[in-house]
């Protein structure tokens, strides 16, 4: 194929980008989006603070802009995210215990129900494990409601939208030997063993000198897949430039294609200037929307 999306589709996969609703009026941005990508993830518009700014008051205007654009252009939508310790609305940050558990489950149910039938995959729970060598859960108000908050969220999401693939998504889970990777692996294995609904693992894969692309990345992808879940690369960006960056993108794509259940790749933004990494150049297009060596390598690898 001559575009990322078409080439990925020839391999039975998608190639997506995180996008922002307020950029859908930028013709350069939309031109690249519509030409190259066949999946989108709302970068912020489906997060808890965006969709439930006051308790029980749901706002989907900006998320709908993205979903409607995707549907009109034949793109899949990755929903991101139903339950997370970060970007919570103020009212939720101040909650705890049974009230918070109920509020979280109500949020999952209401948002997943609103988008029922329109979401390819939901990041049901994002970033629930701690960094470092312990493999422990991350402390958060949600975690303090009880260890079973993750499975409760997945059960609520399945009931609300039985057709969506339900993913657990995290960062620093790329290196197979890291405690956090093993902890997520054990969570998924436990869920599969006990029949807790889970269909996919999302590896954010934000690569930079502090968390570089690991040589055992393919082992991580295939190990998760062997548990009977899909693996999705959900927030890919790679700090760097030129040939080095291009070769890392090439390796990531090759690793995904080598694993049958690695079903898609999403980059976390379109142009370098769209990146959440303020000073970096981690994406496939430069600030003018021109294809970088990383783009060419990615397309060649697909
Ligand atoms: C980031 C967005 O890109 C920023 O615009 C926002 O200010 C903060 O969140 N992991 C995730 C994403 O799961 O939701 C984060 O997105 C990046 C890290």
UniProtKB/TrEMBL annotation:
Reactions catalysed: Endohydrolysis of (1->4)-beta-D-xylosidic linkages in xylans
Enzyme Commission code(s) on record: 3.2.1.8
Record-annotated active site: 235 (nucleophile)
Domain GH10, chain residue ranges per copy: 1-301
Principal EC category: hydrolase
MF annotations from Gene Ontology: endo-1,4-beta-xylanase activity; polysaccharide binding
Gene Ontology process terms (BP): xylan catabolic process
Key words, A-Z: Carbohydrate metabolism, Glycosidase, Hydrolase, Polysaccharide degradation, Signal, Xylan degradation
Similarity remark: Belongs to the glycosyl hydrolase 10 (cellulase F) family.
Protein name: Beta-xylanase
Native species: Micromonospora rosaria
Portion of the full sequence shown: 45 to 346 of 477
């Amino acid at each position: 194929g001559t575009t990322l999306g078409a080439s990925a589709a020839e391999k039975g996969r998608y190639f997506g980008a995180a996008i922002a609703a307020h950029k859908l009026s930028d013709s350069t941005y939309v031109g690249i989006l519509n030409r190259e990508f066949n999946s989108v993830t709302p970068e912020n518009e489906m997060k808890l603070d965006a969709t439930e700014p006051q308790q029980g008051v749901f706002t989907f205007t900006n998320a709908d802009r993205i979903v409607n654009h995707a549907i009109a252009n034949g793109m899949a939508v990755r929903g991101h995210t139903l339950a997370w310790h970060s970007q919570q609305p103020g009212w939720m940050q101040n909650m705890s215990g049974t009230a918070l558990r109920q509020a979280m489950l109500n949020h999952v149910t209401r948002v997943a129900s609103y988008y029922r039938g329109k979401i390819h995959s939901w990041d049901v729970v994002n970033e629930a494990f701690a960094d470092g060598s312990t493999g422990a859960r991350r402390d958060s108000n949600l975690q303090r409601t009880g260890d079973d908050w993750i499975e409760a969220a997945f059960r609520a999401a399945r009931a609300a939208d039985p057709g969506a693939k339900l993913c657990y998504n995290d960062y620093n889970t790329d290196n197979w030997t890291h405690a956090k990777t093993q902890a997520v692996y054990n969570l998924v294995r436990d869920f599969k063993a006990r029949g807790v609904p889970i269909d996919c693992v999302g590896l954010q894969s934000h690569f930079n000198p502090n968390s570089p692309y690991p040589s055992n990345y393919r082992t991580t992808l295939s190990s998760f897949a062997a548990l009977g879940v899909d693996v999705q690369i959900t927030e890919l960006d790679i700090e760097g430039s030129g040939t080095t960056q291009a070769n890392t993108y090439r390796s990531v794509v090759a690793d995904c294609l080598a694993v049958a259940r690695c079903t898609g790749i999403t980059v976390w933004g379109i142009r370098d200037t769209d990146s959440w990494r303020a000073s970096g150049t981690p994406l496939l297009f430069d600030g003018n929307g021109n294809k970088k060596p990383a783009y060419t390598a990615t397309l060649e690898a697909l």
